[in-house]
Amino acid sequence: MGTYILNIETATTNCSVSLSKEGKTVVLKEDYDKNYSHAERLHIYIDEVLKEAKVVSEDLEAIAVSKGPGSYTGLRIGVSAAKGLCFALDKPLISVSTLEALAHQVKCDDGVVVAMLDARRMEVYSAVFDANYNQIRETEAQILDESSFEAYLEAGHVYFIGNGVEKAKTLIKHPNAIFIDGKLPSANEMSHLAYNKYKISDIEDVAYFEPYYLKDFVALKPKSKSV
Fold it and tell me: Measured between alpha carbons, how far apart are the two ends of the chain, in Å?
C-alpha cells in the first residue's frame, strides 16, 4: 500500500496540509489567507486530503508537523492537532524544521539559501542552507540591518525566501542578493523531509514534544551571558 504520512504546516498564515506516499505529495490543501484561519480550516483540510486520496486515518504510518520557528498561536494549533491524531491513532509524531522545509522551495546550483520568517519590527527568524540544503548556520532571531548576511553575499549568490523578505529588501542592496517574493512554508516540502525521518525512526515523544518557538530561547540568552 505504501507509506502514507500526513503533514501539517501552520507556522505562518498559510494553513497547509499534505498527504504523502513514499515521500511524494499525493494531495495538498492550503490557504495563503493573510489572516490566521488555522482553527477553522485545519481539521477540514485534514479530512479533505484523506478523502481525496481515498485513504482512511488508520492507514497513516505517521503524522508530521512543522515545528517552528513561527507564529506562537499557529504552531500551537498545528502541534495540538498532530498530537491529538497521534494519540487517537497510536501513530508516531515526526517534526520538521519550518525553515528547512521553506528552503527546499528554492532550486539553485550555487550560493546559499536564507530562509527567513517575519518576527517583529525589523526582526526575523532565519537559517542559512547551502545549495544542497545542508544547514550551515543555526536558526537565529536577528534584527536586520544593511550588513546582514554580508559574508555570504560577498562570497556569491544569496537566495532570500519567506515572509521576512519584505523587510530584507528595504535594507540589503548587494548585487548578489536574490529575493524570492510571496513564499510561505508549505506542507508540500514537508513530504520528503518527513519520510526521510520516518525511515530512520527519527520521531518525537508525543507527550512531551513542544514547538520550537525561538523567542523564549532568545529571551533567556542575555541572562546566561551575565552569569
Answer: 56
Burial of 189 (0-12, 13-18, 19+ CB in 10 A): buried
Task: Please tell me whether the peptide bond between 69 and the residue prior to it is cis, using omega within 30 degrees of 0.
Answer: yes
Compute the average pLDDT of residues 24-28. Answer: 98
pLDDT of residue 215: 66
Pick the closest to residue 71 from 104, 40, 36, 44 (CA basis): 36
Residue 4: all three cell numbers together: 502514507
Cα 54 to chain center, whole Å? Answer: 26
Checking if the pLDDT of 197 tops 90, the result is yes
pLDDT tens-digit readout, 152-180: 999 999 999 999 999 999 999 999 999 99
